[in-house]
């Protein structure tokens, strides 16, 4: 029977190999603080368990996933990998876990081939040629982008990137890339040049003033408000997503206070950073 720690390492081997296209002993050493000998033993053991999954390539100094790769430890959902990147997801110790359940929400399909290229582009600061679709433009459109961050926006993940076609920084929904992106040359464009990313602000919320005092008090307690206000720190380009997650509607003035619950106090400060939804 595998120990919990070894099971975690086998999960990690499969996660990195599948989504990044290469796993080496160095990955395990950095992630778990184990010796090189132990890391090599873990990879060898994984190969013994799933002999068709990984093959060593000296030119890559690591093990690459093979065409017949079978997922035994990971779910194959890109959110699992992205949560690991953002450190939002911890592998639970099953001996101490409490019973829980999660909503059965739809998954956005994103291929490993797309993620591998985007991860490489971010790490190596390279341009990428991609095909992208949206509801307003369902036909594939070729773009050259420079990605700099993955962004979790509630139900879906985005890629923040400079778009040469739009001549500016914008968000791309991960599940709307098509084909396999092509890595291009290195670039000096970076997140530091993205004003929406480097500008930080606070969204100030309060209970809808149309609510009764007792109703407002419920919200004060829910959100642990200070002086009747809730402040949420955000990068400017992510303010729209904060509003969506908080279910605060700034356009429909006829919405009932019980449905709205919160209102944005400093709309004038935030408005320059909001965008019309076209996705």
Provide structural commentary:
By secondary structure, the chain is an alpha+beta fold. Helices cover 32% and strands 25% of the residues. The protein has ten helices and ten strands. It has helices at residues 4-20, 25-32, 36-49, 78-85, 112-124, 195-198, 213-222, 239-246, 257-260, 267-270, and strands at 54-57, 62-65, 126-132, 141-153, 156-163, 168-173, 177-186, 200-207, 230-235, 262-264. A five-stranded antiparallel β-sheet has the order 6-5-4-3-7. Strands 9-8-10 form a three-stranded antiparallel β-sheet. Helix 2 packs across helix 3 (36-49). The longest helix is centred in the first third of the chain and has 17 residues, at 4-20. It starts with a helix and ends in a 9-residue tail after the last helix.
């Amino acid at each position: 029977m595998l120990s919990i720690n070894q099971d975690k390492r086998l999960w990690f081997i499969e996660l990195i190999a599948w989504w990044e296209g290469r796993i080496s002993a160095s990955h395990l050493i950095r992630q778990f603080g184990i010796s090189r000998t132990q890391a090599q033993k873990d990879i060898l053991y994984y190969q013994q368990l799933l002999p068709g999954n990984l093959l060593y390539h000296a030119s890559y100094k690591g093990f690459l996933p093979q065409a017949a790769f079978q997922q035994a430890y990971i779910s194959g959902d890109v959110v699992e990998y992205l949560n690991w990147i953002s450190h939002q997801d911890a592998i639970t110790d099953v001996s101490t876990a409490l019973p829980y359940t999660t909503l059965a929400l739809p998954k956005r399909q994103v291929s490993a081939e797309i993620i591998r290229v985007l991860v490489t582009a971010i790490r190596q600061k390279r341009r990428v040629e991609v095909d992208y679709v949206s509801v307003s433009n369902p036909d594939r459109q070729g773009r050259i982008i420079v990605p700099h961050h993955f962004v979790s926006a509630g139900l879906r993940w985005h890629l923040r990137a400079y778009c040469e076609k739009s001549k500016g920084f914008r968000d791309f929904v991960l599940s709307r890339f098509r084909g396999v992106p092509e890595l291009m040359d290195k670039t000096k464009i970076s997140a530091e040049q993205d004003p929406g990313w480097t500008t930080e602000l606070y969204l100030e919320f309060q209970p809808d003033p149309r609510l009764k005092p007792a109703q407002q008090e419920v919200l004060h307690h829910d959100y642990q408000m200070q002086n009747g206000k809730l402040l949420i720190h955000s990068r400017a380009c992510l303010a729209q997503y904060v509003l969506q997650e908080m279910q605060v509607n700034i356009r429909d003035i006829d919405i009932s206070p019980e449905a709205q619950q919160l209102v944005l106090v400093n709309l004038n400060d935030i408005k320059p950073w909001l965008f019309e939804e076209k996705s």
